[in-house]
Design a protein that fits this description.
Elements: H1 3-9, H2 13-18, H3 23-33, H4 35-42, E1 69-75, H5 101-104, E2 128-131, E3 136-139, H6 143-147, E4 152-159, H7 165-174, H8 184-192, E5 202-207, E6 236-238, H9 256-277, H10 280-303, H11 310-316, H12 326-338, E7 343-348, H13 357-381, E8 388-393, E9 397-402, E10 413-416, E11 420-425, E12 433-435, E13 437-438, E14 445-447, E15 450-451, H14 452-462, E16 472-474, E17 477-479
Parallel strand pairs: 1-7, 1-8, 4-12, 4-15, 5-6, 5-7
Antiparallel strand pairs: 2-3, 4-11, 8-11, 9-10, 13-14, 16-17
Helix pairs in contact: 3-4, 9-10, 12-13
């Protein structure tokens, strides 16, 4: 896909003839290089309307999709796999002993622990039990998640190159550690378009954490950026305090008819500017104003959760009634996908457990456990789970050795990119399984490694997209979510 071609396809008659002098040069070039070479440089498909319309790229999906929509629950700061899903009972006997050098293998460390004189083993203080038909080990901190062990696929062998939060989260979301690429939600909005012209295709919700002791990582709009794609494919952040979307309400003294006349006049001015300059972003601006006008009606209806049943609140918990809680955002996520939103991203911060892990982690888990379970059950009861992909996880894992002082009662864990755990459900994922494994120290992967590129390629596959064919030409490359290195589909986790 070539973004330059999109501008050409949208150009006006005046712009076409303004470029007409170049036509003889193109004809001469075709004579020298061959007609097919020139045609190949200018051909390409374009989306019909993207985030503000209905259709995406005509040739997508490439194959029959299993997933139509996604809810991605990102735990910002990196949950410790050793205390939640990757049970290592033998580590009890290793308490306060040094991590063997042959296990570490000279791995790169963060500056937070690279100066430590030793790396003492910190076994988890939390109890584990087997759950589901296949006996998945799940921590006592996640009792509701344990109840849906047969619905989820736990991947214990995820790995990444990023060792610090900023590049790791960016990598998770956009397929690159360097900011500026489109995130996953933007790629899907661009390729598959919208199912509801009155709501954005891609929506972002930021959930509050409850424990003031939690170490919080900053996040920003670049994580839901459309990168080099048009701004219409960026995520729209719905706020939990005040107006859900800033500046969407009519100002005092301006009624809806007046606003409609103002937008019509503004659209005419923007169209005139577009005809003069031919900048596709001008068309995006027109569409954004129109979407904002329609959202004046659709967003209040969306966020008014008073109509939800008592049974729904019992499932999600009373916290769902409080704006900004994880339970509230999970309920809103279900309402969003129910109304045709393609991709919903929820961020929950506070998982950066460098210290006081046994004191902070229980409250973090309590914030999300019941609501994450409820979301999956709610989707299932409505017949939506089969084509709605739900993802839960962080950006990397945590070390078996303690960061800072280790006692029987407390410890911390540093960043660990070599292995981490996440779970997926619905949308073509085979539930009731644990995929991949790690060594006794949860330090190195011993079975079925899944790199982030493989994970991204698999998600695209679930949406019916061949990740190698879904590209956009930018800065001389056929850019894609999975980058230029090899990525494989993780077929074993597909239903």
């Amino acid at each position: 896909m070539n973004l330059h071609d999109q501008a050409i396809n949208l150009e006006t008659r005046r712009q076409f003839f303004g470029r007409g002098a170049k036509g003889l040069g193109v004809a001469a070039l075709a004579t020298l290089l061959g007609e097919s070479a020139v045609r190949g440089a200018t051909a390409g498909e374009q989306p019909h309307a993207g985030n503000f319309g209905v259709s995406g790229i005509p040739s997508l999906p490439h194959l029959a999709p299993k997933a139509k929509r996604c809810i991605y629950l990102h735990m910002v700061g990196a949950p410790p796999q050793l205390d939640l899903f990757d049970y290592k009972p033998k580590m009890v006997d290793w308490f306060d002993k040094d991590l063997p050098a042959e296990i570490r293998q000279g791995q790169r460390l963060t500056t937070m622990t690279s100066g430590q004189a030793r790396f003492p083993i910190a076994p988890t203080v939390f109890k584990f039990a087997r759950h589901g038909k296949h006996g998945a080990w799940i921590s006592e901190l996640l009792p509701h998640t344990a109840r849906m062990a047969d619905d989820i696929c736990i991947i214990k062998s995820m790995h990444t190159e990023a060792i610090n939060h900023e590049p790791a989260i960016t990598f998770m979301q956009s397929g690159s550690q360097i900011a500026g690429k489109p995130c996953m939600g933007s790629w899907l909005a661009y390729g598959l378009g919208s199912e509801n012209r009155n709501l954005p295709t891609f929506v972002v919700l930021n959930a509050n954490h409850s424990d003031p002791r939690a170490n919080v990582q900053a996040i920003g709009a670049k994580l839901w950026s459309s990168g080099f794609l048009s701004a219409e494919y960026a995520g729209v952040n719905l706020r939990s305090v005040g107006d859900p979307v800033l500046y969407i309400k009519d100002p005092a003294g301006v009624d809806r008819n007046t606003r409609r006349r103002m937008l019509d006049g503004l659209s005419a001015l923007n169209q005139a500017k577009y005809e003069q300059l031919g900048d596709p972003e001008t068309q995006t601006r027109i569409q954004q104003y129109e979407m904002a006008f329609r959202m004046q009606a659709s967003v209040p209806e969306l966020t008014n959760i008073a109509s939800e049943s008592a049974a729904t609140y019992e499932m999600y918990g009373e916290e769902a009634k409080k704006p900004g809680t994880f339970a509230n955002t999970a309920l809103l996520a279900r309402r969003l996908v129910e109304r045709g939103v393609r991709f919903v991203q929820i961020y929950h911060r506070g998982w950066d457990v460098h210290g006081s892990l046994p004191q902070v982690l229980p409250s973090q888990c309590k914030d999300i456990d019941q609501a994450a379970w409820a979301l999956v059950q709610d989707l299932k009861s409505r017949g939506m789970l089969e084509d709605t992909l739900v993802i839960w996880g962080g950006e990397f894992g945590r070390t078996i050795y303690s960061q800072g002082k280790l006692t029987k009662d407390t410890y911390g864990r540093d960043h660990h990119p070599r292995c981490f755990s996440l779970w997926m459900a619905g949308g073509g994922i085979k539930g009731g399984q644990v995929y991949g494994d790690t060594d006794e120290f949860s330090y190195n992967i011993t079975e079925n490694p899944v790199h982030l590129r493989d994970w991204h390629a698999t998600i695209m596959q679930l949406f019916g997209i061949d990740h190698e064919r879904f590209t956009v030409k930018y800065q001389g490359l056929d850019q894609r979510l999975t980058g230029v290195e090899k990525a494989k589909i993780v077929k074993a986790i597909l239903a």
